């Protein structure tokens, strides 16, 4: 599309100087995220204030021009790709940490601050913000809010939606508004805060967030358990989750993930096994060993091959080496990883892993299963190495999603829907649920200006 | 109003036998909750199935007749009073616990089960559901969902909104739908689950809920700390909340609340002090004393008068006697308690208590402050003893709410808005936020059939 000249004039007034960029490099960068989708916008703007975002949304609405928000561009679902062109609002300059209030266990931030920069600013106060996605150094808090990001720590401390008190945003109507509170309890009207979290910039653009903070545990200890097969490991996960000490992380790797890590990091002491659990417990220096003992007791059982218990922080690191090696190992196999993010009830994990492996064999595509077992949230990653495998990989996805739904699970635990899973949404949600979601979209964004083609 | 004959015919078909009741006793009972509001419905129906609720909503919508859901009738905000008459749907017969799945840490229930019956069913499995309102023996899970109920335990374990995975419901359109999942992570479309929680039956009628369960701690210990004044106690609350051991409860009583408890329960060993904190920590038998020590360290500081640390469960009970005595003591003072439920950031508690006491003096109405200090959620209860004091009490409320908003707080932490706080909602929420809430209401309930006159 070509932007109307009067819109471009308005945008240049709202975003003077280099706050508006229509150069080739800027458009090329804003066309992509970490998905395989790409589409160039017509112009990129860099908001610095809430008022600018209000003017921006009004201008785009007036001209019915698509407007897509963008943070670090690390989405794996195409959520930040401007499918229909138009304007991309890059929030990375709106990156202030406005206030850290330890007494109230909250921080007020702008959406463009990276997750890692926030964590570093919180550390001296003895706090952290729970979401810990693998992309923390690059992804922004705004992006975390957009897709309801998680990470290993979500098991004990919750994902993004569980760790936000309030938001400031601009709806697709162009109206700025405040949702939620500065308090940890709130029964004052409808919960618009959590409605916006995970809505991927389709309802409103978030310009500020009041985040719930968690005190940093003084002591952290890891355990590593290997099992004969996936079923034994999954039973251990269920045992661990049924006892009172909730681990801070409970990560799973299947045999193929282990083999991959071993092949590509021969020095990392990656064990051979049917399945592996990496477990982290935390607490105070006095109590953490009791937590470790409780989880170790639950990890023991039929099919256990070996249980390693870290005595200190350096041993923690050694036990996690297999998991760390896996990211690099996948990249070494292929540049065309199809990154899935399904979630099932914990008790259905054995069926998910067995079913995914059967589908991979049927479609002849390499596949690894690993991830956040305590939440039933596995990354079922296809690793196609050539065009044929890529084609077969995408052909397999509908069967994988059908399996997940049949197991009582859903399409995404922490990456979101974006464009890549949008066509599968009717598998997970009934027509009446989708119709309500479309009505909610229309209530916030009556002209369909915000991030068209995503989620609903 | 008089119901159209054709609607009554439809209702009699949907609700045969005693599932429909238009007798005087039934209408009188359904007219009231624990607020001072009352209005008789024209008929009461007792749904037993989701399909009946779909038919019910469709019939009421067709005739544009108001429909108000009701559980145990313990709302203090008038949320379950059918202000405009019409139909009351009493869900108390829909009280099955459908499934308890310890491996998946979830329970599937119908909305009419009482909070207490649910907790009793969960206990043998080693789990509880976090919300623990004082009305647990009588209030239903559906009511807890409707007002986002909390209780002391919400401090560590969250309120209702933090402890629900998914819902089944019927929107005001008459369409049944499913929101959320059976999993603890979900980034699949808009979060309709948390939107319904706290919406007080104005968007949809909930017919089923998948609840997130928490393992029961094996050991619980209490502490009781008295302080010279409210400011010292509030500073202790901030210190406690800034260290890593989050208490399971952190309750506050002001000097007047203590005096009231002492006067009415002379045997309960209620201390004399400017303010009191009751603190509960939990963990395993091996770790609970470390948690107790950590909290005790944080409780000590300027203004501390005495710190009692329970050594066992019976001593726990003794320390909580003051708090237990308070409910009865308030009832002994007056039958006309004005039960408030405001919430401020924890650091603003001293200003809230001082400000509320100043307003009570100005308006010459007895007032006690107590409640969930760790969440900044205080019950600021007016205790008027005669018609003049009642009048002055209600006249004081707008000033109290203005104070709360000025302190960065909001109108309700766990009771909701209902009818009693509806007129004050514009104090807490800007016009643009209210407009969005009204749009959401219209999306779910286009003809305004569900619980008219409440919330927005």
TrEMBL record, chains A, B:
Pfam families per UniProt: FAD-oxidase_C, FAD_binding_4
Q: Which cofactor does it need?
A: FAD
User: GO molecular-function annotation terms?
Assistant: FAD binding; oxidoreductase activity
Q: Name the InterPro entries for this protein.
A: FAD-bd_oxidored_4_C (IPR004113), FAD-bd_PCMH (IPR016166), FAD-bd_PCMH-like_sf (IPR036318), FAD-bd_PCMH_sub2 (IPR016169), FAD-linked_Oxase-like_C (IPR016164), FAD-linked_OxidoTrans_Type4 (IPR051914), Oxid_FAD_bind_N (IPR006094), Vanillyl_alc_oxidase_C-sub2 (IPR016171)
Q: Does the keyword Oxidoreductase apply?
A: yes
Keyword terms, alphabetized: FAD, Flavoprotein, Oxidoreductase
- Report domain FAD-binding PCMH-type positions: 37-216
Q: Please identify the protein, giving its name as recorded.
A: Fad/fmn-containing dehydrogenase
């Amino acid at each position: 599309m070509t932007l109307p000249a009067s819109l471009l004039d308005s945008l240049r007034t709202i975003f003077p100087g280099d706050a508006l960029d229509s150069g080739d490099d800027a458009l090329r960068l804003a066309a992509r995220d970490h998905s395989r989708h790409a589409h160039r916008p017509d112009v990129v703007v860099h908001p610095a204030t809430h008022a600018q975002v209000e003017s921006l949304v009004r201008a785009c609405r007036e001209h019915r021009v698509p407007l897509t928000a963008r943070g670090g561009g690390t989405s794996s679902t195409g959520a930040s790709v401007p499918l229909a062109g138009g304007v991309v609002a890059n929030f990375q300059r709106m990156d202030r940490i406005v206030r850290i209030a330890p007494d109230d266990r909250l921080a007020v931030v702008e959406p463009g601050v990276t997750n890692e920069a926030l964590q570093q600013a919180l550390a001296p106060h003895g706090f952290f913000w729970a979401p810990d996605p693998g992309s923390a150094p690059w992804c922004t808090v705004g992006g975390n809010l957009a897709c309801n990001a998680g990470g290993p720590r979500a098991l004990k401390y919750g994902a993004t939606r569980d760790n936000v008190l309030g938001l400031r945003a601009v709806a697709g109507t162009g109206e700025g508004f405040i949702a939620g509170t500065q308090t940890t309890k709130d029964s004052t009207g409808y919960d618009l805060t959590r409605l916006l979290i995970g809505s991927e910039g389709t309802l409103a653009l978030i310009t500020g967030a009041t985040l719930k903070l968690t005190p940093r545990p003084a002591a952290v200890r890891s355990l590593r358990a290997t099992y004969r097969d996936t079923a034994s490991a999954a039973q251990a996960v269920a045992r661990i989750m049924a006892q009172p000490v909730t681990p801070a992380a409970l990560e799973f790797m299947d045999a193929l993930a282990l083999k991959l890590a071993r092949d590509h990091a021969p020095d990392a002491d990656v064990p051979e096994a049917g399945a592996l659990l990496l477990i982290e417990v935390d607490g105070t220096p006095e109590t953490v060993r009791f937590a470790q003992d409780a989880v170790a007791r639950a990890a023991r059982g039929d099919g256990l091959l070996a249980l390693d218990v870290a005595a200190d922080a350096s041993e923690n690191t050694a036990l996690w080496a297999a998991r760390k090696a896996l990211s690099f190992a996948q990249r070494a196999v292929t540049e065309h990883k199809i990154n899935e993010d399904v979630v099932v009830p914990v008790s259905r994990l054995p069926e998910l892993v067995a079913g995914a492996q059967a589908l991979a064999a049927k479609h002849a595509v390499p596949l690894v299963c690993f991830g956040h077992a305590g939440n039933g949230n596995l990354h079922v990653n296809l690793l196609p190495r050539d065009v044929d495998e890529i084609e077969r990989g995408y052909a397999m996805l509908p069967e994988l999603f059908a399996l997940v739904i049949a197991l009582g699970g859903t399409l995404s635990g922490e990456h979101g829907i974006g464009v890549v899973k949008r066509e599968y949404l009717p598998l997970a949600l009934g027509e009446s649920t989708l119709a309500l979601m479309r009505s909610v979209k229309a209530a916030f964004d009556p002209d369909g200006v915000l991030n068209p083609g995503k989620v609903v």
